[in-house]
Amino acid sequence: MTEPTPALQIRALSKVFALREGALEVLRDITLTVDPGEFVTIVGASGCGKSTLLRLILGLDRDFRGEIRVDGVPVTGPAADRAIVFQDHRLLPWLTAEANVAAALLNSPLDAETRAREVREHLDLVGLSKFAKAWPRQLSGGMAQRVAIARALVGRPRFLLLDEPLGALDALTRLRMQEELKRIVAHEGATALLVTHDVDEAVYLGHRVVVMQPHPGRIATILEVPPEARADRSSPAFVALRDRILGLLGVGAIEALAV
Amino acid sequence: MAGDLATPRSRDLRPILSFVFVLILWDLAHRFALVDPRFLPAPLDILTRLISELSAGTILSDLAATLRRNLLGFLIGAAAGVSLGAVLGASRRIGQIVGPTVVAQRQTALFAWVPLLAMWFGGGDSGKIAFIALAAFQPTVINTWRGIALVPEPLRELAASLRFSQGQYLRHVALPAAAPQIFTGLHTALIYAWLATVGSELFMNITPGLGGRLSEGSQMFEMDLLFLAIAIFGAVGLIYNSLAEALEAQLLKGHRP
Amino acid sequence: MTLIHSSPAPVPFAPRTARALVQSLAPLGALSGQILLGLSFPLALLALWSLGAARGWVPPQILPAPSVVWQSFLDLCADGSLALHTNASLIRVAEGFALGATVGLVFGAAVGLVPALRAWVWPPVQAATRVNVLAWMPLLTLFLGIDEALKVVVIGWSVSIPVILATARAVGDVPATLRELGAVLNLTRAQRLRLIVLPQALPQIATGLREGLANAWQSLVIVELFASFEGLGYLMTWGRQLFQLDLVLVAMAVIAVLGFSLDLSLRAVERWLQPWQTGAGHGR
Asked: Which of A81, A88, A106 is most worth mutating to test chain B (most B CB atoms within 10 A of its CB)?
């Protein structure tokens, strides 16, 4: 397997929003290739179009210039092979945790029994089997987000899109969820694309980090994450890479430490 | 509506006592001949009238006739309102075209429709029911429309990412999300329909019903009957309101974000 | 964990003015598009109505042609009777609204500020207001006759109810955070009323007044249908008795247009009174 088909291939992608106030260019000339099973993180300031990029890959928005191919096929709309986790959990408040996960299988060809088993397995995977019958409002932020992750994974997508999935959580829950996310994505063997504005998170989770710049959103550089940095947050490799990214984003290392 | 004002504290007896005081004052005013009994009947007179009406069965059959018209009109108006509201909410374009007319129609005085409907449908039962249906239609259509049109964008996006069909979207996302507002519309419709029922009985042809008894009491100067009819009118409104509130609370329990 | 601040993008100087021009014009275009769409439906109905009348689909006793209605509108304008009836109705609404708003504001503020009133006087009054004024009308007739007094009282009654409710609630339920603020700043009672209670109550009271005006318009029609010898409601009753639908329709249209513009102007006043409120979250 020297040259596998890329899981995701983006070429010369540009996106312009037509607003009442005029045209707003949010993405300019994005080119990115992601291999199967790879975990790629995208980091950048707000306004660099990273969430827009995910929506385009998902197929929610089909108005763009350039090319997006998933497994070699151009994206024409949402499909079963791609799933997304949003920053807000977006659980339907009138459905139980279980039913929320099952909602992702409404259009699946599986029979009812298999669906029920898949739902159970995925709630188990995120450690929430005991809360299958709970209403979303009874869950904490972290738990609700885990249900949302289960919902995204239950259809066994080949591609998992994560739009700042941990952005709304408190610092401690967030650290714990980063571990979880790493484990879960590895377990499912999915290709993952995670958008964040947290540089630590980007370095810790990604095999590669895409650094983006705003106005209009464009790729500044793409960095490989050394295995030792990805394994240990306090390793010199981790700190060096983080500082380098912060520098690219216009934040000095000393400033970053002071935060 | 005014629940927080009506019940300041859970074990506060003063509101109940205040009613008792009003009744006592009312009764005392009669005993000491402070008011003209031709204009204000004694509380007991009204009760006596209720008992005699009940034993004769007249007030019950009047109430039944009124309620029948009321419920029929409400059902027609609410069904039309929910259906049209769902169409307006589901299609942005139709909402833009028809919506402003619906809103403008809501702003016009409801009772201005009485003469027109009386001429179109006659002053009998069908005219009355048409008017009641119109009264129920207005708040239902607007609230259903708003509720479905204002489903938050994140939920629409979620439905798109899960590849929901239009039907799945309506069933699993739009209708549950709009349910509180649809119920608000139906609740208002219930109150309006009741108002329109009595109004139609006062303004269209006199037919058996509560409104007829109201006019009878006024024209024959039978104050006890008049007060009784007003009390029943109020009581039915109160019962409708409490029923709607209880039902709303029950149906929406646990479904709020 | 680091939050990253975006640096402001360099904006080219020259295109800026052009963009500003586009920015100021674009919403206008979108707005007029919306208005055109909204007008298209009633215009289509009107066209259908004209066509139906011309082809004789509906008998004129059921629906006279638009031209007939327009002609009687012109006639009513020419002989001054429309102005007379409209004037009579508007005066009633103004008097009733003034009465109801005054009573509502005073009584509502009293109930909101004095706990004893809230406990002892409010419940029976509330019970009476729960019964719509429509049902009280036959009784009020016996006390007030069927002349102007009845009309003003009925309209005033219907106005006062939402005003009382809104005022009492707004004045009575000052949020705890604002009350704490008053305590922290060591304000006197008068200062608290002026600086905290009233401004935060104003939006709710304004909404109550607007609701009251809507009620006034509703009950004007009710009371004029019930008993009157002039006014727009009377014009409708008269047209109905003469089987002249065109009169009924003219009166309906005038009632609709006036009611709509009353509401619009009160909304404008509301916005003008509360410049700190952004337009969002208005209406029910």
From this structure: A106
Average pLDDT (A72-97) is 89
Is C138's CB within 8 Å of B14's CB? no
Secondary structure element (H or E) that encloses residue B50, with its range: helix B43-56
Residue B97 to residue C259, Cβ atoms within 8 A: no
Lookup result for tokens 């890479």: A241
The pLDDT of residue B217? 84
CATH 1.10.3720.10 corresponds to the domain C66-273: yes
Q: Cβ contact (<8 Å) for C6 and A197?
A: no
Which pLDDT score, from 0 to 100, does residue C184 have? 76
Q: Chains B and C: how many Cβ contacts under 8 Å?
A: 154
Contacting residues for B14 by C-beta, under 8 A, at least 6 apart:
C119, C120
Rounded to two decimals, the pTM is: 0.78
Could you give the CA distance from residue B31 to residue C243 in angstroms, rounded to a whole number?
Answer: 52
Give the whole-angstrom CA distance, residue C264 versus residue C258: 10
Q: What is the third-level CATH fold of B43-252? A: MetI-like fold (1.10.3720)
Mean pLDDT of chain B: 85
CB C42 within 8 A of CB B101: yes
User: What ipTM was predicted for this assembly?
Assistant: 0.81
Q: Point out the residues of chain C with pLDDT beneath 50.
A: 1-24, 278-284
Closest CB from B160, B164, B256 relative to A93: B256
Bridging pattern class, strands A191-196 and A208-213: unpaired
Q: Which candidate from A198, A214, A215 shows the least CB-CB separation from C1?
A: A198
> What does the domain layout of chain A look like in residue ranges?
82-156
Model confidence pLDDT, tens digit, residues C248-264: 999 999 998 898 888 88
Contact (CB<8Å) B161/A58: yes
- The secondary structure of B143-199 as a DSSP string is HHHHHHHT--HHHHHHHHHTT--HHHIIIIIIHHHHHHHHHHHHHHHHHHHHHHHHH
Could you say which residues from 145 to 184 on chain B have a Cβ atom under 8 Å away from some Cβ of chain A? Answer: 154-155, 157-158, 160-165, 168, 172-173, 176, 179
Q: Find the Cα–Cα–Cα–Cα dihedral B87, B89, B94, B98, rounded to 10°.
A: 90
Order of strands, sheet of A191-196, starting from the edge strand that comes earlier in the sequence: A82-85, A159-163, A191-196, A39-43, A208-213, A218-224
The pLDDT assigned to C160 comes to 94
- C-alpha B151 chain-centroid distance: 27
Other C-beta atoms closer than 10 Å to the C-beta of C215 total 24
B158–A95: do the CB atoms touch at under 8 Å?
no
Q: How far is CA A29 from CA A55, A195, C19, in A?
A: 16, 18, 23
